[in-house]
Amino acid sequence: MGNNVSSTISAKARRRRFKLSSRSSAASLSTTTSLSTTLSSDTKTSSGKGSVTSDGYNDGISKVLDADNEKLLDYFHIMHYMLKNSWNVSKRGGSEERTDGNFSAPLQEELKSGITVLDVGCGPGTWILDMASTFMRSNFIGIDISPAYPTQIKPANTEFLTCDVLEGLPFEDDFFDFVYLRFLNKAFTREEWDTTLLNELLRVTKPGGWIETMEQGVEVIDPTPTLAITWKAGRQLLEDRGVFVGLAYELEHLLNAHPQTSKAVMEEIEHKVGPWGGKDGEIWASHLIQSLEAASPSIIDHLKWTSEEYQVFWKDYVKQLNDPKCRTKTTTYRVFCQKRNYDEKA
Predict the structure, then answer these.
(1) Considering its fold, how many domains does the chain have in total?
(2) In which residue ranges is the amino acid composition biased (Low complexity) (predicted)?
């Protein structure tokens, strides 16, 4: 495994893939290249606002709040490595165990040996490119509704496809050993999760395979005064558009309630925002600043501000998040579980 991921897709799956995605990566996969070269030279985006995602399928900022995400794309690469570092120590059963940081499911040895992995909502492909360079015997496929991922230069054990998961994934049943997704809480409604998304993810997962999802909590702890205002406004905008904003808190229940899954495990980590959190805290502060900048047209319209009022607010917003006295925290959650064998009772 890990030589050319195209060979892992059956003819039937390939025919279905191209039926759904005329813009998928039809060219043969290139030879393995360095991750840094891939990220710097070949991450492409579509033109126009809201046309590409971040590290999240149909990302809430770029899709729901009409973000100009061209200037956000590079920043999502930084966020990936910050989150990887934060999750590198996972607490399980009261003891700390070193993990890869990119995932929590117990698949380290399997990934080293070689398995097939799907990243749903891969965005610019940062997670896949990082994983593919670490686990070179495994094959990785990323899908997204918009082609923000590398189209030419990429490791030989990766492939990226353009498709809409709600229209059906272009793969046969029981195809993947590991299905991964993150930051989709702003992408789908509760009904879509209940009726389509989870069923489709489980359909393409092998019995005994794993599903893992990661989300940021919809609440912040001790927000600055200005962050509290924009956070409330952003949540209201999302709720008005039918977005499942509370997904992070219900993931464990959603997975446990499905008859095809084993008992789900949930983990969470708090992240300090601002100078008190060191370099990672500064990245989180910058992330919140970039997010407001990208979503500002929707926020301004919702709060009925003038441009001048927004500029005054903006300065206070940035100042408060960068204040050494800031004690804001945010939380990320991971939930993972196995797909049951077909003869196994719930």
Answers:
(1) 1
(2) 21-53
Residue 65: inside a domain: yes
- 178-189 pLDDT, tens digit each: 999 998 877 888
CATH of the domain at 205: 3.40.50.150
pTM of the model: 0.79
223 CB-contact burial (10 Å; exposed 0-12 / middle 13-18 / buried 19+): buried
Gap between the Cα atoms of 154 and 344, Å rounded: 39
* pLDDT at 15 (0 to 100): 40
Strand order across the 265-272 sheet: 158-162, 139-144, 116-120, 176-182, 205-216, 329-338, 265-272
CA 314 to chain centre: 27
Q: Residue 4: helix, strand or coil by DSSP?
A: coil
User: What pLDDT does residue 289 have?
Assistant: 92
Q: Is residue 344, in this structure, part of any structural domain at all? A: no
Flag whether 346 is in a domain: no
CB atoms within 10 A of CB 88: 12
Average pLDDT over residues 245-268: 90
Q: Is the pLDDT of residue 24 over 60?
A: no
Name the residue range of residue 318's domain: 5-338
**Cβ pair 128, 122 in contact under 8 A:** yes
